[in-house]
């Protein structure tokens, strides 16, 4: 049972480039989410999904797209990278809704630098 | 709107000493409250959670937290800190609708020998 996996671990982009951060979970969880972590700001929710085919915006969705074609995978796409998107990105999953009693399981993170 | 405040950006304690990390939340109803720990270079791991019942909650690694409605607080405690407890700790609140968890800014714990 691998839990939540994220690739890549590190990535450097130039301004304007696009890329996809991958996230997968093998726990058959319905709920998945993407957060970014910046110093002194904790974790902020980017997008979340309550099941395959259903996604919604979080606190800071601008500049990011998501889709959920399967229960297992929840990729995060940066359409045109900007230096303000330099951050550490975490994917998380839970059996039920994250704001309820269910435990969220986090991936190891992707450290992204945009030059 | 829900919010979480962790007043201490960082705390240093001696190994073997007791620890209390503060957390205050803003929420109208009975909140779902969480404490997570993040070791360097790692993702977050749930320490404990509260959603109803006994206001003193036991978690993993010897941690406990007490929910105090009158003070809107959910402070994390440990009687004797180990060097391996050095990490960043995040308090969080569920948004009631269940879709989102709001995180505090975190408290970094340093443990000195």
Summarize the entry for a quick read.
By secondary structure, chain A is mainly beta.
Question: Explain this structure to me?
Answer:
- The complex is a heterodimer of chains A (115) and B (113).
- Chain A is mainly beta and 115 residues long.
- Chain A is built from no helices and 11 strands.
- In chain A, a hairpin with a 5-residue loop joins strand 4 (31-37) and strand 5 (43-51).
- The radius of gyration of chain A is 13 Å and the shape is globular.
- The termini of chain A are far apart.
- The mean pLDDT of chain A is 93.
- Chain B is mainly β and 113 residues long.
- Chain B is built from no helices and 12 strands.
- In chain B, strands 2, 5, 6, 10, 11 and 12 form a 6-stranded mixed β-sheet that branches.
- Chain B is globular.
- Chain B starts with a strand and ends with a strand.
- The mean pLDDT of chain B is 91.
- The A-B interface holds A 4, 35, 40-45, 48, 50, 56, 58-59, 90, 92, 96-101, 103-104, 106-109 and B 4, 9, 32, 36, 41-46, 49, 51, 90, 94-101, 103-106.
Secondary-structure map:
The complex is a heterodimer of chains A (115) and B (113).
Chain A: E1 4-7, E2 10-13, E3 19-25, E4 31-37, E5 43-51, E6 54-57, E7 64-66, E8 76-78, E9 87-94, E10 105-106, E11 110-114
Parallel strand pairs in A: 2-11
Antiparallel strand pairs in A: 1-3, 3-8, 4-5, 4-9, 5-6, 7-8, 9-10, 9-11
Chain B: E1 3-5, E2 10-14, E3 19-21, E4 24-26, E5 33-38, E6 44-50, E7 56-58, E8 64-68, E9 73-78, E10 87-94, E11 101-103, E12 107-112
Parallel strand pairs in B: 2-12
Antiparallel strand pairs in B: 1-4, 3-9, 5-6, 5-10, 7-8, 8-9, 10-11, 10-12
């Amino acid at each position: 049972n691998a839990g939540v996996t994220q690739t890549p671990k590190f990535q450097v982009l130039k301004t304007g480039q696009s890329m996809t951060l991958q996230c997968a979970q093998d726990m058959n969880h319905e709920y998945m989410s993407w957060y970014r972590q910046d110093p002194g700001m904790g974790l902020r929710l980017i997008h979340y999904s309550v099941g395959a085919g259903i996604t919604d915006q979080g606190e800071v969705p601008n500049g990011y797209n998501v889709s959920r074609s399967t229960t297992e995978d929840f990729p995060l796409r940066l359409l045109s990278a900007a230096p303000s998107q330099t951050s550490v990105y975490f994917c998380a999953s839970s059996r039920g809704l994250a704001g309820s009693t269910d435990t969220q399981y986090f991936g190891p993170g992707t450290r992204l630098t945009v030059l | 709107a829900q919010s979480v405040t962790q007043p201490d950006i960082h705390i240093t304690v001696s190994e073997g000493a007791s620890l209390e990390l503060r957390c205050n939340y803003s929420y109208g109803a009975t909140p779902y409250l969480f404490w997570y720990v993040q070791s360097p270079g790692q993702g977050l791991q749930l320490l404990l959670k509260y959603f109803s019942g006994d206001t003193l909650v036991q978690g993993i690694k010897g941690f406990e937290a007490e929910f105090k409605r009158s003070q809107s607080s959910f402070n994390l405690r440990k009687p004797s800190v180990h060097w391996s407890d050095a990490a960043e700790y995040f308090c969080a609140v569920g948004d009631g609708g269940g879709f989102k968890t709001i995180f505090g800014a975190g408290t970094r714990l340093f443990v000195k020998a």
